[in-house]
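Per-record layout

source: Hyphococcus aureus
name: SMP-30/gluconolactonase/LRE family protein
length: 348
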Amino acid sequence: MRYWLILLAVLLGAGAAAGLRLREFNQFAPLEPVALARCEPVKGIAGPEDIEVDEAGSRAFISSLDRRVGAPDGVRGAIHVFNVDDPLSASGWRDRTGGVPEAFRPYGLSYFEEGETRRLFVVNEAANAVELYEVAENGDLNHLETFAERRLTSPNNVVAVGPRQFYVTNDVRPGRNAPIADLHFLMNIGSGEILYVDGDVWRVAAEGLRFANGLALSKDGLSLYAAETAGNALKIYERDPATGVLALSGTIPLGASPDNINVDGAGAVWVGALPKPLAVPRLARDADATAPSEVLRIGPDGAAHTVYRNDGGEQSAVTVAARVRNKLLIGALYEEKFLFCELPPSVR
């Protein structure tokens, strides 16, 4: 009798925990749409998962891969350069990597500029690595080197802090394509990490994150923002620029699952987020399926404000929002387009 009581208690506890997680992921909650006044779709770039802005150059680097057909040994990804002042320029649809490396599945991006040095760091899922490119004046990319290490099992996003220095997220230690990765996500297991790379030296800078995803640096370089996707939160770390050491200083609840992060010229933080993340896996199998999208802005008050929310009909499963002056570029994991939107004066 005691055995059955224990088993019943376990089952009830598991059911209650599962119900709580479904509520945390807004699975049954209605979503109130929030629209931007004017958004134009820019078509022809598959899977624009991350967008990184070079505001001085009025351009944006876009990570691209058709993830429905791009198996590990299949279709190669690309990096595109979108000219904000000339949106119809044909050069925006050309891959800038020169075909290097051959196996290339890009995720997160980070643009670095210091003096005459212009570089782009790109997470390459195909090699569990970070690729480093030199950026030419016209936006073409010259491959310089590949950073890889045995602890980098599931790289997701990167943020540069020097010409060969960067932070990179390991979203879940077993690897996001491992069967157990879904369990880590659903059960809120903190196996995510942030690794710091100082040239040839690697070390763990932060751990215990619940699916470590997007990264961004504050304008003064003293704070690092990290998206905790399974935790519906943005982590803020104090950063020692001399050593790269991180110390957790705050957490901002978002009410949605954050993906990539960008900091604009005024220091505001832009987050591409998934209000209902459990709807996303279906997109990989069904090109007609949609998943809701959200964009949040975190300003000087430190609170997250929704500037865009959609049921997925306009842009499904948004993963990134990047501001360039009075424009906002909104990308997504499985779409074949990104949105080019006009920002109202209230959020510029």
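summary: Residues 1-18 have pLDDT under 50 and may be disordered. Residues 40-347 form a domain with the Neuraminidase fold (CATH 2.120.10.30).
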